[in-house]
Structure formats: C-alpha cells, structure tokens
Amino acid sequence: MKKILCVTWKLLGICAAAAMILALVFGKEPFFSLQLLLFTLLFGLVPYTVLHHFLNEETQRRFFGLSATIIIALIYYSTPVLGISLFFIPPIFGMLFKKKVYLLYSYITTLLCYLLVTWLHPEIVFDYVEVISYSTLFLIYLTLLYYATVMMTNEEKKNSLFTKTMQALIIAVEAKDAYTEGHSLRVSAYSLSLAERLNQNGYKINIEELRVASILHDIGKINIPSEILQKEDRLTDEEYDIIKSHSVLGYNLAREMEFPQQIWEAILYHHERMDGKGYPHQLKGNEIPLYARIISIADTFDALTTTRAYRSAFSPAKAKDIMIENDGTQFDSKLLRHFIDIIPLLM
C-alpha cells in the first residue's frame, strides 16, 4: 500500500511539474477559473492530510514534498485568477503537521513561487507594500499558531501518557490488595463531585489536577508488602508504621514522575488531620493543602462504605454520622458540610 501511494504521488508530482513546464514553453493562459482553488485543495492538501498516518517518516517527507510541489504548480496557474490570497494556502498546509521544516519549506517555496509568478506574468500587478505587509503578518500568525498547536499536541500526549501510567499503577496497587479494588476510582469520583460543588461556592479547584491526585493517592502502597496489606488480624505497631509510610512512598513516586506540586502534596498529606494528629507531618488546619483535605473526606467515606477484611461495609447514612463525629478534628468542617450535602447524589 505504501509503495502504491508513493508511486502514485510521484507520478502526480511529475505531471504537475510537466504541466507547468508546458505552460512556460507555450505561454498558455490558465485553463481553469475558480475551480483551480478546489483542485489545489484536492490534489495538494487532502491526500497527504488523510494518508500521511499510513506512511513511515521518510516516506512522509517525500510525500509532503510532492504534495507541496503540486500545490505550488497549481498556484502558478491559479494566480491570475485568484490573486495573492492563494499564496496563503501552502504555509497553512505545512503548519498542520507541526514540524518546523514543513512550515519553513512551505513558506519559503511559496514566496519563491510568488517571485516566479510576478516574473512570468508581468501583466499581473501586485502592490508590493501590501504583499510584504500581508506576508509578514501571516508569518507571525503562522508562527504563533504553530507553537500553540505544538503545545496542545504535547499536552495531549502528556495527558495520554499520564492516563496510561495511572491506569497501570492503579492495577498494580489493587492487585496487591483485593479489598481496595475500585477504591482509587471511587475516591476520585467522590473527590471530583465535592470539587464541583466547591467551585460553585467560590473555590477555585483545578479538576484535572485533583483527578490525578485522587486516583494516585494510595500509589505508595505498591511498595508495601502484600502480606501486610491483606492481613486480616490486627496490625502490629511496626506493621502499622509500614502502612503509614505509603503516603511518603507515593509522594516520592509522584515527584519522580514529575507531576505538578499540587498532586504530590495531596498524595503526601491526605492522611493529615485538622487537629494535627495525622501523618506523616502532623500538619494542622489550613496547613494541610486543600486537595489533601478533599481527598481525606472522599477516602474515609469510601473506606467506611466498603467491606473490609475486619468488618462489613457501613451504610451511607451510618458513614455520614461517623464522619460528622469527626467534624473539625479529622475533617475540614466547611468541606465536610458540602460533602454531606452531596452524599445522596453519590449513591
């Protein structure tokens, strides 16, 4: 398939070049009118745009050169009819593929084509000041658009990698502790529901950051021995200290993975308490980051309403009562009130 495409577009490129040479030799006037714009888009833009995903990088470069040649050949024919506006097509074509070499190639060859047209068609009069102004502004616009497109693409790739990484880490953690299956996703859902409620009441919470932090809040458990995580009997003090280390272990992992500070802080502090009796650093009140206070509420609610090795699940109503008993000591009072209001919506 790739060979067929490559041969096809080489032939098209040769035909376009041959047509331009014939026009130069015999002085033929353009034989299309506004339809040339459609042909430019059809033969120059569409095939490469649709088919380049099927080609390897080397063939892509050749294919792009051929497509650009077709566009520029058609520009020669179309200029007397369409004027300078047609020269703006190839750079946009080059910008679409987010590579500097394509953008520069398209822009430079388009300018060269413009010079060629003005030489071969002396009857066409361009306003050079207008041309230079438009070309400069267009180059600035394309440059900004190019970098914006690249940034958006990089962010999409980054988010995609983060999502896949998070999914793999969640699977690894939950494989070590059968009782926490689905826990991370439920905590994330509860956290985001609370965050949406808070944003409606004057808070400014980055939903995407909180989503990542809440999903990964227990990621440190990947380094906790399975026999401790799955132990049905009461934990010894030493074993409990090992369990508590998961927040620091998760924090270290998040930093190594270069997540934003708000995410690894939430992972580190989601077991802190408002009264300063939590871990690992016994922070108090607003010393605890907002995301960590949100995740603490969601984490506790899911733990209470889920069956564990040592007890059955509490009903949402009972879980709510237990959490109210810890209002102001374990939980942020303002956040807890909002969470209690949305509990019926979570079930």
CATH superfamily of the largest domain: Hypothetical protein af1432
- What is the level-2 CATH architecture name of the largest domain? Orthogonal Bundle
CATH class of the largest domain: Mainly Alpha
Distance between the termini: 53 Å
Largest pleated sheet: none
User: Helix count, per DSSP?
Assistant: 15
Q: Strand pairing plus helix content: what structural class?
A: mainly alpha
- Please give the domain count: 2
Number of strands: 0
Oligomeric composition of the shown chains = single chain
What sequence of helices (H) and strands (E) makes up the elements?
Answer: HHHHHHHHHHHHHHH
Bin the strand percentage. under 5%
- The gross shape turns out to be elongated
Q: Which regions contain 5 or more consecutive residues with pLDDT less than 50?
A: 28-35
Q: What's the average pLDDT?
A: 75
- As a percent range, the share of helical residues equals 55-70%
Q: How would you describe this structure to a colleague?
A:
Residues 180-304 form the HD domain. This protein is mainly alpha-helical and 347 residues long. It has 2 domains: 2-126, no CATH class; 155-346, Hypothetical protein af1432 (Orthogonal Bundle), CATH 1.10.3210. The protein is built from 15 helices and no strands. It has helices at residues 2-26, 35-51, 57-82, 89-95, 100-120, 128-176, 183-199, 207-215, 226-229, 237-244, 246-256, 261-269, 290-304, 316-325, 333-346. Helix 3 packs parallel to helix 5 (100-120), helix 4 (89-95) runs antiparallel to helix 5 and helix 12 (261-269) crosses helix 13 (290-304). The longest helix has 49 residues, at 128-176. It is elongated.
